[in-house]
Each structure stands twice: as structure tokens, then as C-alpha cells.
Amino acid sequence: MAVEHACPESRASLSTRGLADMTTHLHRLFLGAAFAAAALAAASACATDRSDDEQGHGRDGARHGFHEGKLNVQVGVRPFYLVEGMDDGKLKSRLQQCEAGPFYRSKFSISHRGAPLELPEHSLESYQAANRMGAGIIECDVSFTKDGELVCRHSECDLHTTTNIVNTPLNAACTVPWVAGGAAPKCCTSDITLDEFKSLKAKMDASNPAATTAAGYLGGTATWRTDLYTGRPAGNVVTLKEHIGLMKAWGVSQTPELKEGDAARIKSIFGGQKQYAQKLIDTYKDAGVDPRKVYPQSFNIEDVLHWIRQEPAFGKQAVYLDPIEPALKIDRMSKERLRELKKAGVQIIAPPMWALLSVNGSNEVVPSAYADDIKAAGFKIITWSFERVNLTKGAAGQGSYYQFDPEGKAIKKDSDMLKALDVLARQVGVQGVFSDWPGTVTYYANCMGL
User: ∠67-72-78 over CA atoms, to 5°?
Assistant: First the structure.
């Protein structure tokens, strides 16, 4: 089905309202994603890029200063599917009113590793998808190669599950190579050079430990994800310098996370942790990136404090990733500790979503006491990560990002995640939300004017 569309300034041709009616009808009847997507693409063909070039994650800044290039933002079918599945109420009605678009880039929508719900994380294609879905900030998790180059990988040692390395001659270079029936493989970015890294092919983060062949080991992708977008040739893994180039070309803000690594290798390659943290910032300075467009992150408070003290232009937007994790016996920060961090110059704290939410006696999602304490201490808050787990059967038993609702009393189905997102935005007041599928958060942010 072809849908004719044009974007004259007079809007005289095919009306947005007509396209909205068509799109709504198709989505509500669930009559084929292709038809709905065609209507949506036509409706959003004039979408504007409203990403702010100034400070802030977009909550205040996204309302003015829109002077970057235009982008035809398309959020895809998923947000419509989730909205349609919501229980009737004010939130659903409001979100339905935004179905016609147009959609625009928002810093409230932060890309987590690209768009890894469906595309291999930290791949070129994953970043392209995040940009197209209107993410105003795109992440590069930063690790390092044997020859000291910075690359985008979620972990120093995850190449055996996120790339095809075990099915290449580079398997022999791994800290623990894959061998049928042998020990679990461990393949690190620091095992190989930059050129060797660039010869790899990104894949969905998964493995099949029971496999008897290297090719078989590369399988194991969860059924609620997909391998549809893993067919690109080798070389689609991305270095930090390449990531910076992409973001500059797209006019998108960047949030590099300095990943922890083997201390001995960091010392051998960089001279120590501070030098490793400094190289991250130096890479942005060498590329001429405006510090206002960069939000460096780390779970290591010493990295954050180093940036604040030594690189204040970048440090004032440094993000301290809250390591809270009951399973590891890492408790929430006390009010006193929060005051100490504020006094030290930390401005942005990023706890996981579950730490900011709770469920009350009426089985409603509400802000947690911890969220209230962080706000009271004067911090800006961002959080992670939306669309990271399978909620088709609700939050019960999911743990992880939804451990605030272990019995699924509030989050009973996937569409209920939008209730949690709404509480994070309007009651907790977060500045942005990391998502594995930025289109969903972009849709919400656009609808709410964020």
C-alpha cells in the first residue's frame, strides 16, 4: 500500500488529521504493521528536530533553542502497540492524542547502547536506528583495545557474546578462547588491537553455551528479541572517535560511559585509572566537541570527581551512575552521602529505574523515598533502562529493572511500563530515560512536551 504524502508549508495536500485517522484506525485494528508504518511515515515526514543545543537533558531546554538540522523522526509501530494495550484512562487518552505526530528529537530520550532491543548493541546500525527514533542523547560505553584505543563496548570482556570473535581466527587471542566442551570463553577488547577489533561483526548479545561449534555458540538470542538485523558485513563495530563523528554529523548529544577494566591492563596501557579517565575527555577535546553536548558517565565516583576537578567544562555535566544493587549488598546512598557528593560538585545522579519507584497500597506506581531524597539534595536525575526486559507477562518474577514490583501488582503487562515512565517523568522529575528502544520514550516525551 503506497501512501502519497508531501510537506508544503501550506499543508494543502494530504492533511495530517487524515493521516492521523488512518494510522489510528490501522493500529487499533492491528491490520498489519506495514500499512500502519506507511501511514505513520507519511504523517511524520515533516517531523522537526527539536533537540536543544544548550545545557540540560531536555526537560527545560527542549522547549526552546531548536536550531539544529531537521530530522525525519520515526518512532515505529511499537509505541502505538503499547499505548493501545493500556487500560483506559487519562494517560492512555493523552498518549492517543499524539498519534499523528509530528515527532521530533528529545534529550529526554536517551539511547542505551543504540537500539539493542532489536539491533546489535553499539553497532553502526544500532546507532542509526536510535538517531532515526529521535534519541537526543546517544550512549557509547567506552572500553579499550590492546593498543590503547577507545572503543564502544558495554564491557571490556564481552566480545564473545556481542561479536563473532569466537568464530574467527581471533578466538585464539581471547583471554579464554572458545573450545567445544571447554571453559566458558572470555574475549576482551584489550586482547586485540584496534585493527583487529574493526574486523569483527556485531551481533545480538547472547550465546549458546551448549553449542558444539563456534557458529552455534553465537546463537541464543532471546525469543522476544530478534536476529533480523545482524546481517551486515564485518566492521560495523564502532570506535569512540567514530561515534563522536556520527554524533557531530547528526547534531546529537553524547553520553560516554567509562567502563571499568582490568586494573593491571589499565595501568600497563594508560598508566593508571586517572589517565584512562582523562583520555576519554581528551578524545572529545581533540575532536572539538562542545562540552555542553557531552555527559560523561561512570560508576566509579573517582572518575566523576576527576572530571569535575580537572575538566570542569565537562565535569559539570558528569553523571554518577548509582551502583545500588541489593543482590550485591550495595545499599542506597544515605542522605549524608548525598550531601557530600553535592558539596563535591556532582550535579547529576543516575540510579536504576527500580530504585526511583515503588508500589503503594492501591497497587499504583509512585516515587520511592530514595527518589525523594535525591531530589531534596538538589540533584538532577536520569535513569536506566527502559525496554530492557520482557514485560509481556508483567513484572512478576522479572527482578532487575522492575524489582520495585516483584509480584506484578502494578505492572501486569508490557503496556503498563508507560505508567512507570509517566511517574518517572512527572512525579520523580527525571531529566531523561535510557531506553533499549528510544522510539517509545521519544513518543512519550514528544506527547508530554519534554
Answer: 125
